[in-house]
Amino acid sequence: MVGDPVLVGIDVGTTGVKGVAISATGEVVARVEIGYELSIPQPGWAEQDPEDWWRASELALASLGDQLGEQGGREAIAGIGLSGQMHGLVCLDAERRFLFPAILWNDQRTGEECAEIERRVGLERLIRLTGNRALPGFTAPKLLWLRRHEPDVYARIRHVLLPKDYVRLRLTGELAIDAADASGTLLFDVAKRAWSEEVLEALEIPAEWLPRVLESPEASGLTQTGVPVAAGAGDQQAGALGVGVVRPGPLSVVLGTSGVVFAALDRYACDREARVHAFCHAVPGVWEAMGVMLSAAGSLRWLRDALVPGAGYEELTAEAARWQPGVEGLLFLPYLQGERTPHADPNARGAFTGLSLVHDRGALVRAVLEGVAFGLRDSLELLRELGVEPESGRASGGGARSRLWLEIVASVLGMPLELTAVEEGAAYGAALLGGIAAGVFSDAEEAVLACVRVRDRVEPNHEWQESYERGYARFRALYPALRALEEP
Question: How many domains is the chain built from?
Fold first, then answer.
């Protein structure tokens, strides 16, 4: 294999950098993960030092090079792709030094600024242009927060980047962004795949602060050794590419800490109430609509930690498997951190209803698995309103390791779920983008054809589906009932 091209993907996540090296036929030949800290200076805030991302990325690249010794070391790397956490704000001065800790996607300090954005731009106009309403996680509210609370910092801003794009700057010296990640800033005209002059004018944000926009597979620059670095994508777009979702067809269904149902679209389309996100996909000329629930596998982790800290998930799901669908009336609402899709309600809260003396720990686990599946169904129903009619889904994330959970989700969604041979997430999709930038593949379709293979398929259990249709109707009624109880 000496002399064969190796493609590297770097994913700049919230808890660490993940790196993967793959062959031109998709086999993983090296992998690494380097962690770093998350700073929470006040409740609801989330910050990081951008230099931590760069140090971890340097270490990841060095480790991958060491692991590639027999393939030629770092000299074997033909292309690099970047992915990362979306929406985070990195502000640089005229010398390209960061001015303030990066404010991350999960930071909740910008409620007032979100209201200001919707007032300045107009909610209907904002959704039409950006595909989304103003949520605290997005980038634009963070800029307005700095202007209000840190005016000295704001006055020195000359460049605005997202997390992975700071790594690009350190790796290549280039200021750039891809359309997919840029579409999560709330400053981007998603239909036109360009910065929105209308939004920038309404918010009084200088256009010259923003980097040039490329499509995800385009080369954004070269490393010091001449390796092309693809523009890259946000983690969800790169993850969808990594499981083969490049055109309308199968969905990407992510059972991670959060839950995602992601559909590729051949045209720009957005929900009029922005109950699902509309972004550009990592494939040129393709868009996406995405529903996000905040506590998917995170709900199961919470239950495990609350009841039996340290227990294995296999033990818990084995107990859940002893219960029939519907768990004899027990239902779980998975809004432990509020919810995005379909409610956009940071104050929503979780609940168990229908508890009785017959229920045990396994019943609680089964109810959580089913409640998360119902939450994913909410996203699917909204995607169907946009004309999405998928025949199958590609499952990924930690929860996808549970055969029981996959069978529950497949039954609730009414479609088979497929598992791919490689489960490296966004870093794998980033490596495919690196291969396109390097000329190893001509486009995303060729990269997927060469590298992404389905290894397993989980069909819906038709004996469960009638019970789940009844359960989903009860699930849909539960949130409004609970919110009504909370009103004075």
Answer: 2
**β-pair partners for 456:** 419
- Respond yes or no on whether the N-terminal peptide bond of residue 342 is cis (omega within 30° of 0): yes
18/74 same-domain check: yes
Contacts of 119 (CB under 8 A, 6+ apart): none
Answer with the one of 210, 235, 260 that is the final residue of a domain.
Answer: 235
Query: Do residues 481 and 333 share a domain?
Result: yes
Instruction: Compute the distance between CA of residue 242 and CA of residue 427 in angstroms, rounded to an integer.
Output: 8
Q: Measured at the alpha carbon of residue 182, what is the angle toward residues 181 and 185, in degrees to the nearest 5?
A: 105
Q: Give the percent of the chain with pLDDT over 90.
A: 89
CA terminus-to-terminus distance, the chain: 69
What is the spatial distance between Cα 389 and Cα 249, in angstroms, rounded to a whole number?
8
Cα distances from 102 to residues 11, 46, 206, in angstroms, run 17, 8, 19
Residue 462: how many other CB atoms lie within 10 Å: 9
pTM score, two decimals? Answer: 0.92
SS3 call for 265:
strand
Q: Which residues contact 104 (CB under 8 A, 6 or more apart)?
A: 14, 38, 46, 47, 48, 85, 87, 88, 163
The mean-pLDDT minimum among 193-197, 254-258, 437-441 falls in 254-258
59-83 pLDDT tens trace: 999 999 999 987 777 889 999 999 9
Three-class secondary structure of residue 278 per DSSP: strand
Across the strands, what pairs with 333?
351
Q: According to the model, what pLDDT value does residue 483 have? A: 79
Are the C-beta atoms of residues 21 and 64 closer than 8 Å to each other? Answer: yes
Q: Are 239 and 396 in contact (CB under 8 A)?
A: yes
**Looking at the DSSP assignment, which residues form a beta bridge with residue 80?**
8, 229
Q: How far apart are CA 421 and CA 429, in angstroms?
A: 13
Query: What burial letters (b/e) apply to 16-37, b meaning 16+ CB within 10 Å?
Result: bbbbbbbbbebebbbbbbbebe
Q: Is 30 helix (H, G, I), strand (E, B) or coil?
A: strand
Q: Of the candidates 216, 235, 254, which is a domain's last residue?
A: 235
- The residues assigned a catalytic role are 235
Nearest Cα to 458, choosing from 399, 397, 415, 413? 415
d(CA 187, CA 430): 24
Please report how many Cα atoms fall inside a 13 Å half-sphere around the Cα of residue 367, on the Cβ side: 24
What residue type is 8 in one-letter code? V
DSSP letter (8 states) at residue 89: B
